[in-house]
Structures are given as structure tokens and as C-alpha cells.
Amino acid sequence: MSPRGCSLIFGVVFLFLSVFSFTNIHAHHCTEGFLSEAKQRNLINITFCKRYIESNGVEIAMYLREKSRRLDIMVGAKFDEKEKTGWLAWGLNPGPEARMVGTQALIGIKKMNGDFHREKYNITSYTKIGCQLLPSSIDFNVSNFSFSYNSYLQYHVIQACIVLPMKYDVSRLNHVWQVGINVGDVGKEPKMHPKGLRNYDSTETINLRTGVHGVLNIIGWGTLLPIGVIIARNFREFPLPCLAWKEYHVSCQATGYIVGSTGWAVGIWLGKASKYYSFPKHGIFGIFIFTLATLQMLFFQFKPRDRDEFRMYRNMFHHVVGYSLLVVSCINILKGINIMHLDYSYWLPAYLGILACLTFIFLLFEILSWFKFLCDKFGLWILCANHKPNHEEPPNSRKEDARIQPTNTPINN
Ligand SMILES: *[C@@H]1O[C@H](CO)[C@@H](O)[C@H](O)[C@H]1NC(C)=O
Ligand SMILES: *[C@@H]1O[C@H](CO)[C@@H](O)[C@H](O)[C@H]1NC(C)=O
Ligand SMILES: *[C@@H]1O[C@H](CO)[C@@H](O)[C@H](O)[C@H]1NC(C)=O
Ligand SMILES: *[C@@H]1O[C@H](CO)[C@@H](O)[C@H](O)[C@H]1NC(C)=O
């Protein structure tokens, strides 16, 4: 493919993905108040938090512990203050789609006399056609189920802890919610919710699993890119001269770019699938990383031929951006791991292991290079006796230059 074609493709993909991600990051999120309230309760590490502006402003936060399949939920909504009664419902549907019939629901009811009730309901097709809805058993165990009023948020809040049976797929979880006003005489029967538009679109399928995104990003940004840098820095001439270093460097970075961007796209998709994960900083860092990486990839196409000064600036830019990229992606991966805490206790050690390995290799090469440098400059090393410079330039300036500008070499330009 011609360089121009490549650049064009990168450019288009970049533009598309950035627009896509920006529209997502600010699209939906739960309010700060709700988030902090959820964190104060049992949902320390929020997996999901979203406000459904279009359906009565209901806010839902979840914390999933993947290993134990324990799901903590908190659902809040503002009741109509003019009404004496009201109910708030949230449930999961184990069926193939998110819909009312088949939902295993938790419902909190505010009665005429101001009392609060909470019950479990198995919503069937009879409910839909208007039959009485009464408490029943549901197919998961619920603990710490409460319904209360939070005066700070002015929300009525359902909170519960559920152990998800295997038939609920956490990467395709159908959840359904609803707010209503009228309550039956006995006080345990939520009556039909209002039939406005705001009340119909109250279902969603969400993905609470973030593993793939993490793996791809750790491999792409966190492993391949640093390896590519090590190649460029050390395989050009010393300690491991390799004629094809540039091809290796480029293919390593290109692969890293593709894998990392895929991981990033998955991250955006995760955000899209559940509209909002409350991690704007992680998202912004992600965009930043992708932007820098794209710059580097585009830059690879950009080769002013003859002007030495240009080439120097070009290389400086390449290095500054490259190293910043490494630092930022390292920070963001750690951030991401910190966010996930879905019982993935092995993520942090795994990534730290990779990091330690790369640092070790990097330092090893650095030390070797310094030995070589000192040897060339001062003849300190015994082995220097056998070393013959394989070019005409004075070794000192040559080596110094090579250390700072690994790509600035006649071989490839
Ligand atoms: C819920 O209702 C449906 C339809 O009547 C029934 O098949 C199902 O067994 C019920 N689930 C539970 C947990 O009772
Ligand atoms: C609910 O909990 C009980 C006892 O802890 C257990 O025997 C039962 O299998 C659980 N049911 C489900 C659907 O998880
Ligand atoms: C239930 O709530 C209490 C107090 O909020 C908490 O100490 C306990 O750990 C919770 N239990 C479960 C199973 O979430
Ligand atoms: C939840 O987050 C805290 C710190 O934010 C962390 O120490 C803890 O390990 C996390 N819990 C789980 C289950 O990962």
C-alpha cells in the first residue's frame, strides 16, 4: 500500500474513533451525588453507573464481583412530589432480551400512609395484560434488600445484593426498571405505570465484563510498544546490531498500535454498551494515548528527504512523543486495573511482572551501552582492545549521537 493510502486510512479511522469516543464520554453518567452515595454504601468499586435521563431520570449503580457472581445494585429515582404513593422497580431478565415479561423484579412501594414496602415479583405475561401483580418467589437469592428515602438526593432508593445464577450472562445482562405512581389497596400491588414514552423505553442490555479490553491494551500499549522502543534503541548498532532493526521496530509498533487500538475500541464499545462507566479520566487518557500513537504512525509516513535540520526535529519529536506515550499508557493501564477490581487479583501482579521484565531488559541494554560508550571514549574496558570501529566517523560523537537519536542514521534515511 502506498504511504499516502496508509495515512489516509489511519486518518479516517482516527477521526471516526475520536468522534465516536467523545460523544460517548460525555453522553451518560450518573450524578456525582448518586455515585458517592453508592460508594458509601456497599458498592465500593462501581462497575457500572448510569443515569437514564430519558426514562424518568432513574439512576442505577452496580458492583459486580465476577468470581462470586455477587451483584450489588442501587437504584434511585425521584418520585412525583404531588403524589402520596409511588413505586420503583428494577429487575433482571434471564431471557434472550431485555423486556418486562419474564423479569425477576425487586420493587419498592411507598404506601398511602407513608410506609415503605419492598417485595420480589415474578413478572409474567399476565402482568402485562393487567392482572394483579403480587409478591412471589424469584429465581435468584436476594440479600440486604432495602427500600428507603434518601433526603440528601431526594431519591427513593432500592438497594440489594444478588447472587447471579449461571443463566444470567454478565456480559449480556438484561435489566429492566420502572417508576410508577399508583399502588393497590393492600399496599403490595404496584399498579400499571404511566404509559408515556418515558416509561416504555426502560430496558437495556449491558456488559459488565471488562477483561478483553484490559488484555488487549496491556499487550498492545503495555508490552509491544515498549519492546519496539527497546529494539529501536538497542538493535541499531549496539549491543545487538541487527540490519533489519527498523523493520522490527516498525512491525512491533504497528502490531502494538493495532492491538492497542482494538483494545481501546473495545473499551469504547464497553462504554457504549452500557453507555457510561464512571471513569472519564481513564477514557480521556485512553483518547490521549490513541492520539499520540496515531501521530507516531502517521509520522512514520512523513519523511522530509534532504534537510538535516528537519530530520533532527522530526526525530526529536518522534522520541518525545514515543516516550510520553509509554509513560501515559503505563499510568492508564494501572488506572484501568485499579478501576476493574472485578476480583481480578492477578491483573496487577501480571502487569507489574511485564513491566519489571521490560525495565530489566531496558536497564541491561542501557548498562551495556554505557560500557561501550566509556570504552570508546576512555578505553577503560579490557575488551576494547579488540574493538574496531566499523566506520570513519570519530567514535565519540558518533556514539553520543546514536544514544540520543537512534533513528538518525544514514542506513535508513
Ligand atoms: C415465574 O413465572 C413464570 C410464568 O408463570 C413461571 O414459569 C416461573 O417458574 C416463575 N418463576 C419463579 C421463580 O417462580
Ligand atoms: C439461595 O440460597 C440458598 C441457601 O443459601 C441455596 O440453597 C439456594 O440454592 C440459593 N438459590 C439460588 C437460586 O441461588
Ligand atoms: C448487608 O448490609 C450490612 C450493613 O449495611 C453489611 O454489613 C453486610 O455486609 C451486608 N451483607 C451483604 C451480604 O451484603
Ligand atoms: C475495591 O476497591 C478498593 C480500593 O478502591 C480495593 O482496595 C479493593 O481491593 C477493591 N475490592 C475488590 C473486591 O477488588
UniProtKB/TrEMBL annotation:
Residues 1-27 form the signal peptide. Its main location: membrane. It is found in: Membrane. SMART domains: B561 (SM00665). Keywords: Electron transport, Membrane, Signal, Transmembrane, Transmembrane helix, Transport. Residues 390-403 have a biased composition (Basic and acidic residues). Residues 390-413 are annotated as: Disordered. Residues 162-374 form the Cytochrome b561 domain. The chain crosses the membrane at residues 214-233, 254-271, 283-300, 320-340, 346-368. InterPro entries: AIR12_DOMON, Cyt_b561/ferric_Rdtase_TM. It comes from the Eukaryota. Pfam families: Cytochrom_B561, DUF568. This is Cytochrome b561 domain-containing protein. It comes from Datura stramonium (Jimsonweed).
